[in-house]
Design a protein that fits this description.
Chitinase A, domain 3, four-stranded antiparallel sheet, five-stranded antiparallel sheet
């Protein structure tokens, strides 16, 4: 029986939930997902938690913010002039910005004032501990 190594293709069901049990993402009611270890599909610490598991196994792991989507960083909250936005804005809306290298950078509209808009560029799950539940369906070694 193959166990998960850094040279594995893994097929699994997974679930991410918050501390209060709210499910953020899950594919348990859908077809399982497949990824190749190290391909960037999963965060490195999520992959590392699966090492040594084999088909048929299920486990849950509590992932603290530094092992998941990082700590909430106040410097990722920006104040921008309201005049910079040519669209109707709503709090909670995700807006796409370009960074210095012209890469897409999503920001969440946190607050809308008369003169300025506060945009949060932290990942929506930053600062949150998550429970990562995985059920391994298949493990294959990749050449």
């Amino acid at each position: 029986m193959n166990v998960i190594t850094s040279a594995s293709r893994v097929t699994l069901h997974f679930e991410l939930s918050l501390e209060d049990g709210q499910i953020v993402d899950s594919n348990f009611s859908q077809a399982p997902a497949t990824f190749v270890f190290g391909d960037g599909s999963l965060l490195p610490d999520f992959e590392a938690a699966l090492l040594g598991m084999s088909a048929g196994q299920e486990a849950s792991f509590v992932m603290h913010p530094e092992k998941a989507f990082g700590a909430h960083n106040e410097s990722n909250i920006q104040r921008m002039p309201r005049s910079q936005f040519s669209m109707d804005l709503e709090e909670g809306m995700v807006v796409s910005f370009a960074d210095m290298s012209k890469n897409e950078l999503p920001g969440v509209i946190a607050e809308i004032g008369e003169q300025e808009v506060i945009v949060d560029f932290n990942h929506p799950l930053a600062g949150r501990s998550l429970t990562f539940r995985a059920q391994i369906v298949d493990v294959e070694e990749v050449a």
